[in-house]
């Protein structure tokens, strides 16, 4: 819902910026302290909105070109926008209330705010037409994006969503992926019989093959994957070894600590993930070996992946190679 709404609002954002372009270039930049504060809030408001939309769209399209991790950048960008929005509304509120009380003529109000062109050309579209154009643009974006989340035959309409129209196939492994094993450089020999999971913590280290992991107590959990790139699954039936049991295996007595999860993936946003101690303690948190009664497919993280409740898909690391307890 968050991603679909963000995409749908792109025409609204562009129309809003287009409508106030003259205000963005008012000279002199500041006529008083109050006006200077208003201009600064406007700068942060517009900059924050553009930053949120641009980074969000890049992330949805799996283009990780921004410095650092998308998640904290997007999060703090949202706080900048919300703070600037609150300040801007507070500074503009007296003028807004006065205009509403006086029921100022719209043309005169536009003259006062400086939004009327000095030498206007002949109009090419009415205000109603402009609003209709924005609405039609948003509707088109909705129709070409939402199908990724609706699933089924609607996926074919998700032309603007990454892999939105791709058929994930059937069977237990028939759900969406962001990156395939081949796409991140995972080779068959990397996940073959020679694969070993390294588990460290409390000064101890053990290395386990997949067969040895399967001999440990197995548990099931019904959990979805909710990906910040704009898609989610229904509850899937996962089975594997509890993370807290793996913590106990290396002598982490008492409450299990947090864990640093490392993937065979050599680079990218999903190579490492940190899970907190409460996530490790949760009995539904698994090093999953199977899904829906079948072995994980290579694209879904074979030989082992993380699955934890109430966490974004980025924390459900695939192709796990190392678990280091106590590193968080």
Automatic annotation (TrEMBL):
Record domain Oxidoreductase molybdopterin-binding: where: 193-325
Keyword terms: Membrane, Transmembrane, Transmembrane helix
Record's keyword annotation contains Transmembrane: yes
Spans traversing the lipid bilayer: 43-66, 73-91, 129-146
Highest taxon of the lineage: Bacteria
InterPro entries according to UniProt: Mopterin_OxRdtase_euk (IPR008335), OxRdtase_Mopterin-bd_dom (IPR000572), OxRdtase_Mopterin-bd_sf (IPR036374)
Pfam family, one: Oxidored_molyb
UniProt KW Transmembrane keyword: yes
Name of the protein in its database record: Membrane protein
The organism of origin for this protein: Streptomyces albospinus
């Amino acid at each position: 819902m968050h991603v679909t709404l963000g995409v749908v609002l792109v025409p609204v954002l562009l129309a809003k910026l287009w409508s106030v372009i003259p205000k963005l270039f008012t000279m002199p930049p500041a006529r008083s302290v109050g006006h200077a504060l208003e201009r600064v809030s406007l700068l942060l408001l517009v900059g924050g909105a553009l930053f949120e939309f641009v980074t969000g769209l890049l992330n949805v399209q799996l283009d990780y070109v921004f410095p650092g991790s998308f998640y904290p950048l997007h999060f703090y960008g949202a706080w900048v926008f919300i703070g600037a929005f609150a300040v801007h509304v507070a500074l503009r509120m007296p003028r807004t209330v006065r205009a509403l009380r006086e029921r100022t003529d719209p043309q005169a109000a536009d003259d006062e705010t400086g939004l009327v062109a000095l030498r206007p050309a002949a109009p090419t579209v009415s205000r109603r037409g402009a609003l209709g154009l924005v609405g039609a643009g948003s509707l088109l974006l909705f129709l070409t994006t939402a199908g990724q989340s609706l699933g089924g035959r609607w996926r074919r309409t998700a032309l603007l969503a990454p892999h939105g129209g791709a058929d994930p196939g059937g069977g237990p492994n028939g759900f969406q992926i962001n990156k395939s094993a081949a796409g991140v450089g995972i080779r068959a020999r990397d996940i073959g019989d020679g694969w070993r999971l390294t588990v460290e913590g409390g000064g101890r280290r053990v290395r386990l093959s997949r067969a040895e992991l399967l001999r440990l107590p197995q548990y099931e959990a019904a959990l979805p994957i909710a990906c910040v790139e704009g898609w989610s699954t229904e509850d899937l039936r996962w089975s594997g070894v509890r993370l807290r049991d793996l913590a106990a295996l290396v002598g982490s007595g008492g409450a299990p600590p947090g864990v640093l999860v490392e993937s065979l993936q050599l680079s990218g946003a999903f190579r490492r993930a940190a899970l907190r101690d409460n996530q490790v303690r949760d009995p539904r948190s698994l090093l999953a070996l199977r899904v829906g009664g079948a072995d994980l497919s290579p694209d879904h993280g074979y030989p082992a992946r993380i699955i934890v409740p109430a966490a974004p898909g980025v924390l459900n690391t695939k192709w796990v190679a190392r678990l280091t307890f106590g590193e968080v």
